[in-house]
Amino acid sequence: MVLKKKKEIQVDAFFLDHHQLEKLQRFSKAEEQNLASLLVHCAELRNGIQQIQCIKQIMPLVKQMDQNSAGDPMVKACLDVLGEIYFSLGAKNPLKKVLASSLNGLPGHLMVPAVQSFVCCLREELKTTDVYLYRKVLDNLASCVEDFSLGRACIKNLFEEVLQFLQKLLLDIQEENRRNHGNRIVQTQLMHDLLIAIKVSMMLIQKLQENIQGSLWKHSESFVWQSMCSLLKSCTNFLMDATLLQTVQTTSGLAVVLFTRAMYEPAEELPSLISGLLLGTVEHSGVPAWFVRNSGVLCTAELPGSVLLFLCHGALAMLDWKNGSMGENGEKLLLDIASVLLSLSSELKEPSVATSLSRILVIWTNSALAALVSGSPDLKIKLNGNSDLIGKLLEYIYTHWDHPLDAIRHQTKLIFKNLLQIHQTTIAGSTGKSDPFFARLIKHLLSLDWHVKGKYASLGSLVECVGTENILQLDRTIPVQILDVMSDQSLAPYASDLLETMFTNHKAHFTLSFQEGTWIDQWHNIWVSPLLVILCEGNHDQTTYIIDYYLPKLLKCNPDSLSYMIRILQASADANLGSCSTRGALGALMACLRTARAHGHLELSNIMSSGLVSTGCIKQGLVHQHSQVCIDALGLLCETHRTTEIVSLEEMQLIQFFMLYNLNNQSPSVRQQIISLLRKLFCRIQESSQVLYKLEQNKTKQELVEKSTKMPPLRILQQYKDFMSSVCARLFEVLFPGSSHPTRFCALSILESIAEIFSVPKGQAQVFQLDQEIDSAHVQTLIQCFASTFEEVKILAFRLLMKLRDVALNLQGSENLDLLFQAAIDLSTSTKPYDCVTASYLLNFLVYHKGLQHICLGKWLEHNPQLDENTSVSTVEKNTLGVIKLLLVNVEEEIFQAKKSLLQAAASFPMYGRVHCITGALQQLPFNNLTLVSEWKEIVTRLIWMSYSLSAVVSPVVQSSSPEGLIPMDCDPESADRLQMILHEIQPQDTNDYFMQAKILKEHCKEESEKLADQLPTKNICMEMRGKDRQTCDVTAQMVLVCCWRSMKEVSLLLGTLCKLLPSQTTSEPSEGLITVEQVKNIGDYFKHHLLQSRHRGAFELAYAGFVQLTEMLSRCNSESLHKMPEHWLSCVLEEIKCCDPSSTLCATRRSAGIPFYIQALLASEPKKGKADLLKMAMKELISLAAPLNESSSVIPQVHALNILRALYRDTRLGENIMPYVADGIKASILGFMSPVWAVRNSSTLLFSALITRIFGVKREKDENSKKNRMTGREFFSRFPSLYPFLLKQLEVVTSTLNSETEELKIHPSLFLLLLILGRLYPSPMDGSHSALSIAPFVPFIIRCGHSPVFRCREMSGRALVPFLVATEVPHTALALLRGLPDSAAPGMRQNAVHGTLLQVFHLLQSYLESNHFVSLDFQQGLHDIITCVGTKLWLAKRLNPCLVTRAAYLDVLVMLSTHLEKFQRQGMQFLDFWEEMKIVISDSELVSGIPYSPAVPGLIQYLQSITKLVISVLSVTAGPDVQSCGSAAAEEMAKPSLSVAHLLHCEFHEVRLLALEAILLGLKQRNSKQIAEGRGGVLCLPTDLEDTLLTMALKETNPQCFCKVLEILYIMDLRNVLPKTECSIKMNPNQLLTWSLNLADISSSPEGQTIALKFASKLIIHLLQNHQQVPEEVLKKWVQLIMYFCEDEQETEMLLAAAEVLKSITSFLLSSEKLILGLSDTLGLWKCVILLLQNEDLVVRDAAAEVIQVAQSEKNSSEGTDFAFRIVNAPMALDLAFGIVCELLQRWGEIHGGVPVLLEWLLGDGDLQSDGETPALEEDDSLFDKGEVNFWAEKLTHVRQLSKHLLHLLSVTHLTLPDHGELNHLSRIALDQAQRIEHLLGALPPVPEFSRTPEFTRLAIQKERISVCLKILNLLKPDDTCKNENLEK
């Protein structure tokens, strides 16, 4: 909606030299304007735009001249000058085009002299010999040939010279390129020149055909012919030269075909020559000698793939495929090209080449379409959809439609679209609908899963061919299926495009077939109704993407549907308000209205005035519990189609209402949306105000506006101003002390966008200016935001201050400035890491102040008077220089001290803060225009030395073997030597022997450490030492480590910044750069040293951050020596890794520490456009090291190589360039996994994991087996063809040993990895007969993997088998597996094999039964066969089978069959025999006869759980209505259970009891939800004495899980059934039961037990109170206490949610009842719980608590019947409503006198300061990372302000005064005491405490406001006379 700024066009002016001016001035006349004087005038202008206007006047002047002027010397001179101007202008200069178009209109009689003049100039140009000036000549030639008649005439005249020039130029560039080998920058420049040269030579041949047509030049002696031969030869060489850029090769391919076509005779033989070249079948004898001479290299049989590709491109682009001009040979060539391209597609895998190939295939389909129009019948047959060639093209499409490269996916879509058109053209005449090819395609596509992206575009293309209706006839649910997919963002755009194609096509079909208006309901039912259902009930992601992608398209197609949507949603909006997880009809309505208004289908004023949507309805939307509904309601107000639409008063009021409750939102995405929507609103205000200002001046239009808005423009502008002022006031108001991070983030971001949008352009009236609203308090508030612990708040505050800096700096007095500067300097050396960030922002703000030099810096640095005299130096530069100098002096001194004692430095002055501030100051300096260059040079040199010396001090710690455990001691200054000794000891002593042998410390180290052992403290004992100020400070190991690694971090970032910001010196201008080449090289060596030797991850990761900045600068640098450094470094480090020298200092840890980072930085900085030579070189080396051919080679290089490869595969910056190496990486990792050395196996595993992510994408679902991160076998093996034989071979080797009977079992480690990969592949229904890479050969091997002795491998082979089988093969494979199971227990039977087979059967059946096969006859038959076969192997589930694990596995198969058969039974299929057999299995089981095993027997628990599931499954089936209604004897027999639920509940194993209890719970929940009265379909048959059993269990149960379940069931049951049984079964009356449950809630060990006990007790209390039974007072008190305990902030979420649920259940009965039932203090106590929960940090808890308010609100509505009330609100609004409700209830209960003091106590708070009173001063916290407040969401002052607002309202309504109220007097005294104490404590804080003591300062500021509000209300409560008396006393 926001407008973009127009770009200004840059035009460079031309100049004439002295000689040209003289020539013209000779003819120019002062008195009249002639051509010469016009040109002189034109050359004098210095502005290109004005020169354009001047040149346009030439033609009218020339046309006025007479016919004889051709011989006029003045004209001749002018034409000469014009020619010189034309050729001197740059190609992109608009002047050149203007001049050409002017000269195109030259009168005929002037053409000859003009051509002569231009020919002279061009001849001069062609004399150029400098290779680097050729580009200008080429540009001139190109512009002459394009649309410039004069230019063409010149080239015709000089045709031979031009050809000769081009011929020479191509050879020269080739030679120059050879000379500059390795200099990438020069070579790139030459490549681009070469490209232009080839293009120009092609343009000459194409545009000037007539010059070379005719046979004159075709004899071998003619000059033109020889030039053409030379050009052809050069282009052939370029085509064959793989070192050139790919674009040069492509263009050369075009040129070769073009030149050959121009020269070849007879022309009809040309196609067969090209066919021969492509197929490698050219005989030299049949080819003209000139072709062999110049392009003979193309006639060899083996041309590289890329050359063939470019030749195909040339042939397709340069030959004429239309109207059959090439005859049969042409058709043959067309088919040959297709087959060559398809065979190339499997070979060429490099991303850029693969992209070109797909593009060329698109060109082929276009050419084929052109050729078909006039092609022979034979061609039509060969290009029919059923032909072999089209089949192969479809294979290509299916393989590439999900390719990771966008370009390839897009081309694939175009190829498919064109293929459909090709087929349609071949069957022209017959209808497409019934065509078998289309029918087959549709069927195949629909059978694919919806996660295949290629499916969408292909279906879309098919819809265009056959129509939506035909596809819907196959499956009516398609629209709903596609809408369901839209919860995945990666699929949503594809899905919405397909839907758009479908509904647009459908609408067009309806409008053609039916009368107006009759079809719209049917269309709505298909396309709109499912949408509305999802909008109301769908999940968050799905609704969001549907609203973003689908809704706008639907409304665009049929805007009238909007009224249908509004009508349907309005009808249900009251009933279906939504919740925190669903939008409801109200949310859906907001979304539809917002989209419609934003796309211009609706005017908000119209629907509000017509009453369609009320203000109340929008208000409810603005504070809805679902944050997205709030955003949509806000969007409805802010987004409009026209950016100048006037904002109405009503909209402004609604926005103000929104801002009261929505700024404190924890979700970053919601905050971003709020900010961007309000930004749109402000833009609208700004733009409509400009329109209003204009209208104000134009009186006639003003009346029109007044008619439409009923208001004069000035009045609207005043409203705008007031609105913006109030918004800003609100935003500054919420930056109060203690406001949360989300609030601050929103407020500052919105203020920033206001400052940006309402900035004043010159000469424009502005409706609002932020800087006029700013006062010193506001500036103070913004500066205080720097103290926030969140860096983004600091950034926002800083950016806002920068926008307002003139006002902000003027409001800073010198005293305040000094204090702030002092604070910043102090903070820069604080031990708390976030303080230095604050210091950096403060300093960056203060350097803009003009007075900084003399007010602050003067005290610290000696003054430099020259600086003051030099007025050209900017304030910022002067101040920054001063600040950096000051920091540098300090840090140099501190480094000097740290060398003596690192511990003292860590405790008193960690140096990293200073360095951080220096980096920050450097980053905002304008480095391109510095004045004090020499000073800066000196500073930079000092900074670099400082960095090195700081690094030297701290690096021993971060490079030690164990940096975390290091606590060196120096209790007194004398022991500094000992510190040095320790630091010396911990220097890395483990070199490359790391993997080979245990570390042996030197003997004396042992002795030393023993000596020290008695002095060394343990890690958590802090050591005391005296700092500079002699105060005691503690040093912990954490402090030392933090000081060291943060210092390393800051040094790295500083050096990186210096490299990045400072223009590196080039040899030509040594004075310019501030940093020398030598310095850059040294910095590079520094990084290399630290990356290759640090062990602390923090240290090398941060060195990497700086190093990346350096390498990026080097790759862009012009200096040859710097440019080649990365290459040199890379080869050095690879050599070092390879040689594996024992003396090597490379850090040998298990993940190679910083080495991968180092190589990653070097490779990632390589230019993206180049050939990626470094990457190719590195990958080749690394892969050969990672998979060594001989075993003997050393392990270390292999480990390093594997670790580096892992980093490279994970690096997204290398993108698709790394893909060609993926297959080799997989091989290396699988082979490495078999290594005997642990380190190699470890690195291989990590590499394998990185590769799986690289191939299949980042995991997008928790479900391991989801199809999202998988691909079809075809796609996988076509992208990595070398893996097909490799994986097959590996599987064969692994499985060959698994079946051997005699051999002992070998465990193959690589089996696991193989199964992991294979489990990610699946067959596609699109797999055709053409696929050589079928995945069928893998199936037998995977089945054999099920025999592995490793449990996890058997499990994985079970899962991996499923995707390898197409659905139709599943029953047949499952039967084969079942039949392979043994018939009885044989002695040599292998249980592993049986178990593996059963797991495979289980997974196959699961996928088969869950698949959406319509219950077909085949399906039923297959199922019967499987059930029969299962019956024959039942012995495996009984006692005959000794192994419990396989018994359990067989039972799992039975359980699954049982649950699914129950479903089919409802559809009328009977399986009585099966149930009979199940009952036999159950009665034979140990559950019936007693369990003879001990719990330790392997598999026992598994078996018991499986048999229990079977029992439960059979019980629920036999209880079902189908069996009951059957009536047959068999059915009656079956209905008798073999085991009862009660039996399960009494089992000694808690696992069995738990399963039974879960089944009962599920049954009860289903029964309650459905309220099933008649039958219990599919629900467990519950015993009659269940209550007795459960109550007994509740007292005796020992297992906590079972106990919780028992209580949960009792909680769900109806208490009217439970309570009567308590007396007899557990001898308790209801009150005793209540006491028992309350005790449980109080003392239970687990939170689950406590929560369920509390809920049960609460339900019991309500039940007793409602039935007027007596509950003892103390029990009620205990219950209230418990609820309060549950609501405390630090409780677990589960307990907080339980408390919220309890409070909601008692709201209507106890909290908001007509009469007080519990007594005032308890009821208010419970209300306080609600208010606490509404301020909990966890959103789930706040949402649950907000439901309490919803219940209270609905009670209020029903009793009062008000017209509008909020019913479903977010927590901030609920909190406000809660205080309002409490005040109303006090009135209703008549308890105002008792209630107000309690509320005043709430207001005053819990006396946070009581503890502080005792301590003499607020002590600083020791901990290094201070967490501050625990709750990051709640804002105490928001709570205080809302409560006081309602209290004041209550007092004003009731006119309450409390004369002699002891409670009040007591409160007054406390408040006055606290007020005094606060003042005292605030006075005791140091200056600017908001920075030095942020937490204390915030706490005191909050308490101060609480007390003052409380005192104000207390004063109001006193009767007037007491107030007067007090005033008199005062």
From TrEMBL:
GO terms for cellular component: cytosol. Residues 523-794 form the tRNA (32-2'-O)-methyltransferase regulator THADA-like TPR repeats region domain. Keywords: tRNA processing. Residues 1241-1404 form the tRNA (32-2'-O)-methyltransferase regulator THADA-like C-terminal TPR repeats region domain. One of its GO terms (biological process) is tRNA methylation. The keyword tRNA processing applies. Pfam families: DUF2428 (PF10350), TPR_Trm732 (PF25150), TPR_Trm732_C (PF25151). Residues 939-1239 form the DUF2428 domain. Belongs to the THADA family. Together with methyltransferase FTSJ1, methylates the 2'-O-ribose of nucleotides at position 32 of the anticodon loop of substrate tRNAs. This is tRNA (32-2'-O)-methyltransferase regulator THADA. It comes from Geospiza parvula.
